[in-house]
Amino acid sequence: MSLCNNYFGSADSGLIARDFSDEERRNFTIRREILWESKTATPTALSAKEVEFIRQYRSSESGIGYNRWPRYARR
Predict the structure, then answer these.
(1) For residue range 52-64, what is the model confidence (pLDDT) as tens digits?
(2) How many whole angstroms separate alpha carbon 1 and alpha carbon 4?
C-alpha cells in the first residue's frame, strides 16, 4: 500500500496566476516524479521525508518552488 500514491499538492492559485499568463494556465501539464517510496513508512516518517525533499530541492524558496512550508531559510 502506498501512503501517497495520489499526491499532487495544493498550489496557491495567486502564486500560479502571478507566474503564468491566462493562456499558459489554460493549457499546461503537471508531471509527477516519484523521488522515494516505502511500503512500511508511517505517516510521521512520510511527512519527515517530504520536509527533507522540500529543503533539499529548495521548493519553498521563492522563484524555485511553490511550497510555503517549511519556510525557506537562507543559510
Answers:
(1) 998 999 988 888 8
(2) 9
